[in-house]
Amino acid sequence: MNKNPFYNHDILSSEQYTKENLEILVNVSREMKSIVENVGSTDVLKGKVMTALFYEPSSRTFASFIAAMQRLGGSFIPLQGMTYSSVTKGENLEDTVRTFACYSDVIVQRHPEVGSAKRSAAASPVPVINAGDGVGEHPTQALLDYFTIIEHFNKINGLTISLVGDLLNGRTIHSLVKLISLYNSVTINLVSPDILKLPEYILKKIKDRKVKIKELDRLEPVIGKSDVVYVTRVQKERFTDMNLYEKLKHFYIITPQLLKKAKKTTIVMHPLPRVGEIESAVDNDPRAVYISDQMRNGMYTRMALLSLVLQKNKF
Ligand code: NCD
């Protein structure tokens, strides 16, 4: 039996992923996809409980983790919008996490503060999975995005990936860019308005890895060369100046006309929710994978992660 590198481990940053353990995640995600498509569910996590501890809004991440746990035969404590909890009485994050660690085997957490998942992990005797820590990271989204690209192209090396939108505040971007830059011969176009550029500390990290990087503020010059166009929402909740947000929110709009410039084989991705940056007329284009594959892959990859974190002999 090989050693399962995820067993009983926290998932806090996409920097924990290596080429080797990504291969395991891809294989197990494929296995999960096949289980769901053929029989719907399994009972390998029967008796296990997941707490979904969400302090920020969520649709897909919250629901796909719950669906994943259910399809693995486990159960869950759903805590969304912690309004009715003791948090409103002033309880700190550590006490809340220690409490739910007494009731469950894994805690999936979303919280507005950068570093909050790491704080919780330090306090928790059970593994913590970061489902978004403010403008920090979103490592499980990066995993589903990676899986979507792999399922489509069967590789990362050699691809040109254009990341578009709010690269400053978008945590999905922060996690994904670190992950794809593990592959030396990928080309990454960072397409954003000047004031929403990728944070310097992340840029430095990926530059050290010697991937090809181009920063620009227009998509048109690179759309025709892109294999992946990954579009993000301008993160309204991270702005203090709403006038600035209004000016920037539709800096990029993907239209059917713009997509005419892209290759037939290009895929268009978005972590969702979208608020106007991809026109709905694009949805029926076969290159649009955000409503279909990308979203389904969220459940398969989270099934894979939960099964690896909770089962010693999974691999
Ligand atoms: C993203 C998030 O919460 O960071 N959504 C998601 O998890 N699919 C992206 C976003 O909110 O823009």
Automatic annotation (TrEMBL):
Q: How does it assemble?
A: Heterododecamer (2C3:3R2) of six catalytic PyrB chains organized as two trimers (C3), and six regulatory PyrI chains organized as three dimers (R2).
Function statement: Catalyzes the condensation of carbamoyl phosphate and aspartate to form carbamoyl aspartate and inorganic phosphate, the committed step in the de novo pyrimidine nucleotide biosynthesis pathway.
The GO annotation for biological process reads: 'de novo' pyrimidine nucleobase biosynthetic process; 'de novo' UMP biosynthetic process; amino acid metabolic process
Residues where carbamoyl phosphate binds? R60, T61, R110, H138, Q141, L272, P273
Sequence ranges assigned to domain Aspartate/ornithine carbamoyltransferase Asp/Orn-binding in this UniProt record: 158-308
Please tell me whether the keyword Transferase is annotated for this protein.
Answer: yes
Q: Which family does it belong to?
A: Belongs to the aspartate/ornithine carbamoyltransferase superfamily. ATCase family.
The protein, known as: Aspartate carbamoyltransferase
Q: Which organism is it from?
A: Candidatus Roizmanbacteria bacterium RIFCSPLOWO2_01_FULL_37_12
Residues covered by the Aspartate/ornithine carbamoyltransferase carbamoyl-P binding domain: 10-151
**A Pfam family:** OTCace
The residues that the entry says bind L-aspartate are: K89, R171, R233
HAMAP family reported for this sequence:
Asp_carb_tr
Pathway assignment reads: Pyrimidine metabolism; UMP biosynthesis via de novo pathway; (S)-dihydroorotate from bicarbonate: step 2/3
Can you tell me which residues the record assigns to a coiled coil?
none
EC number(s) stated in the UniProt entry for this protein? 2.1.3.2
Question: What is an example of a GO molecular function annotated in this UniProt entry?
Answer: amino acid binding
**Reaction equation(s) it catalyzes:** carbamoyl phosphate + L-aspartate = N-carbamoyl-L-aspartate + phosphate + H(+)
Record's keyword terms, sorted: Pyrimidine biosynthesis, Transferase
